[in-house]
Amino acid sequence: MRAVCWQGIGEVGVENVADPRILNPRDAIVKVSSTAICGSDLHLYDGYVPAMYRGDILGHEFMGEVVDLGPGVTNLSIGDRVVVPFPISCGNCYFCEKELYSLCENSNPNAHLAEKLWGHSPAGIFGYSHITGGYAGGQAEYVRVPFADVGPLKVPDALDDEQVLFLSDILPTGYMAAEQCDIEPGDTIAVWGCGPVGLFAIQSAKLLGAGRVFAIDRFPERLAKAQAAGAEIAFNYEEVDVLETLKDLTGGRGPDACIDAVGMEAHVHGVMHVYDRVKQAMRLESDRPAALRQAILACRSGGTVSVPGVYGGFIDKVPFGSIVNKAITIKSGQTHV
Description:
By secondary structure, the protein is an alpha/beta fold. The chain is built from eleven helices and 15 strands.
């Protein structure tokens, strides 16, 4: 089959690789009909996530048709259309029983690698380095889906792929980002990053009752999409002082909650950006947390900062004193989809 493979930092290509096969009783083989590129795939492309090997198949947002099943999968049938969540979860461990599926204790065979970096292993993830299991991803013609009796969601024939594909990751990620804000009717929410996750976070915040949503980005087309998605005001951080603007818009108090939908490769101007770039290039810092810093400083006292943006390791110059002295709650995590 053909698959999109990582070939080194800044290099990907389509290669001919072996078809997947059933390895365990709870496996399924899915013939991919649609797949998407996640913003976090860029972190692999740029070389900021460790344990990528040449030939690794990329992609963790996909859906398709079940073409083979292990004997332990009884809730699916060959021919079913399914959308597949990006985390791989066993359904039986301590965290799965709490519906914290992205923290599954049994789906990452390389948990020891993740524990050395993060202190705890997340669930296995399709196409996202050997630190999360080394599973082949969904940007391929076929995919082996472990624990297929747990994650895949059957799709009615009446729905097109385009209507459900984003259930694999970015839609629930944006929704969870807004849900973590504990939004009360009329709350003001600020969202950094107007890519797909940020746009879904904006829509979800409005759905959950936010009165005003502000969006921050630098690309005019994304700012326009943010307003179309429900943002009252969308502004370019290259043209305004973000912190002063948010103060002015909230009577000097700051937003009730802030969402960092940017993550580890934030772009800003000034000394701090140069600082982050140098430290990241020297591998003294894994991420560039400019959006997170701003979200913390902007958030009102007693508010919440929700972090759906991906961070891969260690960050520097985070204003923790602001978190403590403003009694800010930080909520984050891979989505439990």
